[in-house]
Batch of 3 targets.
Target 1
Amino acid sequence: MFDDFRKMISVLLEEYKDSLDVKKTKKTGDEVFRAFVSSIVTQGRTGVETTLQKIERDPKFKRWKPEYFSTESGKRLLRLYIGHQRKVDTIHKESKRMLNSGLKKWIDDLLKDEIDIGLKTKDDFLKEIGFLDHFPIDRYYPPFLARTGLLSQFLSITKTDPGKFMRGLGDPECYESYKSLMIQLCRDSLEGLKYHDLDLSKNPGIVDMIIWRHCARAEEAFNVCGKEPNCLRCKIRDFCRYGSRKQL
């Protein structure tokens, strides 16, 4: 149904596959808690991995455990390197909740929407720990989908109300509309396209990792189709409405 999308993802998968680090099994223990902190820090910032490494090098750092970050000393360490009080408070508060319920139950409650850490933070975290059916929507998705023509094509084929996509990603309905769009594009277009033995139609989180590398301005990303698109560097410009026009 969305042939151009399949062509785009095929090309980008080939371009970025060597930089992907997809875990087939879900992370456990310290890795899970580190991924949770990363998902909080990453909202609105670049240099996430650098920030986490600075925390790890601090002499006061112990381990990525809720036992430590639920304490006042853990909270002070976070404040020193993150510098955003609301993020620090969220990590501190959820560390206490993890400590009381256990990490496994905390994740189960998150999956059941009984814990609110924000829609994108939730999707980022769950995707990172191996729930590859989750697809976080970042700020580069609206311009990427508009430039490529995928949004207008989707609206035309599905007869979806375009108003759902016009309120900004801070609006829950808008966020969920973009998320549903991307998951449907993957489901309808990417069957049989695989990263190792993982079918991208069933694991849309991998597609997000690919598009993130292409669009984001961050560590390990290439910022090709970012705020100011660099169409001359873009390997999918032949399938992109904006890129095709730029070549005229």
Target 2
Amino acid sequence: MQDLTPKNTAVEDYVKIPKQEYNLLKEVYRTVKRQAFIVRIDEAERNFAAGKAKSMTVDDLIATV
């Protein structure tokens, strides 16, 4: 029976990915992150236009941080 303690569950092997595929995966990741950010901006603009914006004083804002 294999011991599955946390020290044995870490992956010790590396996967070799050709440089071209690695660059493609990296670009896909960046594109997906950008799209998610654009969706959030679009959502925020719609909420702001619909009047769903909170307003608070600077002191209250600082107090929440």
Target 3
Amino acid sequence: MSDDVSTELVVPGIGQVVSFNDASEVALALDAIRDLKWQLDNAVTELTRALVFHSQQAGSKTLHLPGCEVVLSGGPADEFRDIEELYVELVAAGMAEHRAGEVVVETVTRRVSVREADRAGGANPVYRQIIDSHKHPIEKEYRAKVVVKR
């Protein structure tokens, strides 16, 4: 650990002081805080359900309550199945193709397969140069899986 970084943490919600120099203590605290987060997430879900109930009783997704205002979002929504068939049926029913294209919007998404990019780059130095010129490093957040022995 670097000198300018704290070597201890008071774990919120638990109050335990954890020394970063003790890997076992850090792992157990991480497990405990994840358990607390799970409990809090469940409480958030239940409290949100209660607010949805009150919202439905009031007939509004905005609740003006003493000391606060609650605005709910989400809830029932429509999802379309077989979008291509929807387009075909609309055109077959007489809808102009340009209008059907406004209803069923075509979207093209591309992604890079890192494995295939590496294989292509390994096969041809020109491909490697092109592929490498389009890369930029990103920092991904570290994750730690903790399995507590009980």
